[in-house]
Design goal:
alpha+beta; GTP Cyclohydrolase I, domain 2; 4 helices; 29% strand; elongated
Length: 140
């Protein structure tokens, strides 16, 4: 049997056909944070780049063209800006954890991946940082 014929013959399992997700992404968001462990980093802000990806279920039935039917990224941007304006953070790992906690504050988020990079740490590099990913069942 040809591959196309085989695929048209084999229906997808019901669970597989109903589970749909999509990702909301924020790429190369750069802002100045109070971050760092060294004395030279205390009391000043430095540029940090944030990339994130949050996964949410695709609405069933499909969403209308209304903001209320989807996860608005405004809560992510507003939350990151609150973190920026908050207390000094020593580690990029701590900032990444706080951003992940923000992502999971919306119960629709099933998975999130965050990358946080300090941009002035290694002059020969575009950035130095961490990438952390959590799934809903793994959130501490």
């Amino acid at each position: 049997m040809a591959d196309d014929a085989l695929l048209s013959y084999m229906p997808f399992p019901p669970a597989m056909s109903r589970v749909r997700h999509y990702d909301i992404t924020l790429r190369d968001y750069v802002d100045h944070f109070r971050i760092g462990v060294w004395g030279s980093e205390k009391g000043r802000r430095q540029p940090v780049r944030i990339n994130l990806c949050v996964t949410v279920p695709w609405p069933d039935p499909p969403a209308t063209d209304e903001l209320d039917d989807v996860l608005s990224y405004d809560y992510l941007i507003d939350g990151i800006r609150r973190l920026r304006d908050g207390e000094h953070v020593q580690l990029v790992e701590t900032l990444a954890r706080r951003i992940l906690t923000l992502c999971f504050s919306d119960p629709r988020v099933t998975r999130a991946r965050v990358q946080v990079e300090k941009l002035e740490v290694v002059p020969e590099s575009a950035g130095m940082g961490v990438v952390v990913e959590w799934s809903r069942g793994e959130v501490p």
